[in-house]
């Protein structure tokens, strides 16, 4: 084999516990959540998949 010690799985959960394929838990860089939900950012200004339902992320 190639000597890998682990496999990085790019799966994060939504607020309604649906697994989605995303590299990072922050979704503001790959979606339009900041436009659709401007008042839902965390204190650090970021938007996280765990704070949104799948339907909200897909909207």
Automatic annotation (TrEMBL):
Which segments constitute the GP-PDE domain?
Answer: 1-59
Give me any GO biological process, just one: lipid metabolic process
Q: Which GO terms describe its cellular component?
A: periplasmic space
Cited InterPro entries: GP_PDE_dom, PLC-like_Pdiesterase_TIM-brl
**A molecular function (GO) term:** glycerophosphodiester phosphodiesterase activity
Q: Which reaction does it catalyse?
A: a sn-glycero-3-phosphodiester + H2O = an alcohol + sn-glycerol 3-phosphate + H(+)
Q: Could you tell me the keywords of this UniProt record?
A: Glycerol metabolism, Hydrolase, Signal
Q: What is its EC number?
A: 3.1.4.46
The record's similarity note reads:
Belongs to the glycerophosphoryl diester phosphodiesterase family.
Q: What is this protein called?
A: glycerophosphodiester phosphodiesterase
User: Which gene underlies this protein?
Assistant: glpQ
């Amino acid at each position: 084999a190639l000597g890998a010690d682990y496999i990085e799985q790019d799966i994060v959960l939504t607020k309604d516990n649906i697994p989605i394929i995303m590299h990072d838990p922050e979704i503001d860089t790959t979606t339009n959540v900041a436009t659709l939900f401007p008042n839902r950012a965390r204190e650090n200004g970021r938007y996280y998949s765990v704070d949104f339902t799948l339907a909200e992320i897909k909207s």
